[in-house]
Here is the input.
Amino acid sequence: MIKPKRIFIVGHMGAGKALLSEALAKKLGWHYIDANPSLERYIGRSLNEILGKQGEEAFHRCEAEIISHYINKEHVVVLLEEAVIATEENRKLLSSEFVIYLKVSTPTQIERMKGGRVPLLPIADLKTFLDKQHRERDSLFEKVATLTIESISVEEDVNKIIKALKE
Here is the structure.
């Protein structure tokens, strides 16, 4: 595998993308960039519900600008937000980049979000919300991913990525 000039990290909320991105950047000696302007994660509703159709489109344009900016950088590990793969434009931008999909199950997400920032939903609705996100987005994440990692722990996940980069 050719060593990438930059790496984009994608996946669902609660997957551990921020921890992984930061640890991977440190291990590679690269810069860590949190380009995650997420609203869904904190509010627990879709972008369309939060912003309306025009606001959602503007948000996705902002994401495309963020991706376009970092495509021109080298030696960066870029954390992207959950909804980034929702548009064809963003998927197209990411298609020529090295993208890691940090994959987790709903129960793992819920466990990892305990004590941290969680959507502003009653806990009874959280599983339903996350399951819906998986149905809508898993295949899209897989399509843009150069490498899919079934998340175990930050250390093991970083080691899997480093091994894949060396192959």
Observations:
- The chain has one domain: 27-152.
- Strands lie at 6-11, 31-35, 76-80, 98-103, 147-150.
